[in-house]
Specification:
Blueprint lengths: L2 H12 L2 H13 L17 H5 L17 H30 L3 H27 L10 H11 L3 H29 L3 H27 L4 H4 L2
Helix pairs in contact: 1-5, 1-8, 2-8, 4-5, 4-6, 4-7, 5-8, 7-8
């Protein structure tokens, strides 16, 4: 283990715990967060449906309000985020078992801790949106987990680091986009928290990649 890896490993343990806890507290106090009252939108008949009798009517939700395209977008995002969170936890556990590098092991431990916390908050949003919790990771992530399970040592580190670079770049974009698009206060607050946490994770794995001579270009393949 090199001095660089030891230094990065120590930084990982000291990173975003305070920011994550503060963010989760703020989320819990948000109007649409857990314990808060979800604002309801009055049911309206759109002007277009009045002008076009053949247009498909809006589908009602359980509370009687109309389902908007953004509602479908929110639900799809929450489902995907839950699946991704489960995958990050399982991959983090795998990193602790398969890697022989302290910095990679510690990063894996942090993935388990942070994504477990984010996942619990996302489950509350899922419940409010009537989104069923996924039974496990997506098909794509299951394939990645199976691939990495067959590796160990340096081979595992190389492929795990590449996967984490790629995943966190995409996740950061997705969370930022959803934070801008959603009109759900609870989901907006949580995506803002998630954006901060994922940004910190990306900085960490970029440092680890540099220490292990893994290029950012390789992660895009």
């Amino acid at each position: 283990m090199t001095l660089t890896n030891m230094t990065i490993g120590n930084k990982i343990l000291m990173c975003s715990a305070t920011a994550l806890l503060a963010g989760v507290t703020a989320f819990a106090q948000a109007p649409g967060g857990p314990g808060g009252q979800q604002p309801s939108m009055p049911s309206q008949t759109s002007p277009n449906s009045q002008q076009n009798p053949g247009a498909a009517p809006s589908l009602p939700q359980a509370d009687g309000t109309a389902v908007t395209p953004q509602d479908f977008s929110d639900k799809a995002f929450v489902k995907q985020a839950l699946e991704g969170g489960v995958a990050e936890v399982q991959l983090g556990q795998l990193a602790q078992q398969k890697s022989q590098s302290a910095d990679v092991k510690q990063f894996g431990q942090k993935m388990v801790q942070d994504h477990t916390q984010l996942g619990e908050q996302m489950k509350m949003i899922a419940k409010s949106l009537e989104v069923s919790e996924p039974k496990g990771p997506s098909k794509k992530d299951k394939q990645l987990i199976a691939k990495l399970s067959a590796l160990s040592g340096d081979q595992f580190d190389q492929e795990y680091i590449k996967a984490m670079l790629k995943d966190h770049k995409q996740d950061l974009k997705d969370f930022k986009d959803q934070a801008q698009a959603t009109q759900n206060p609870g989901l907006q607050k949580l995506t803002q928290i998630g954006t901060n946490v994922i940004s910190q994770h990306l900085q960490m794995i970029e440092q680890i990649a540099q220490a292990h001579n893994v290029s950012a270009q390789a992660s895009n393949k």
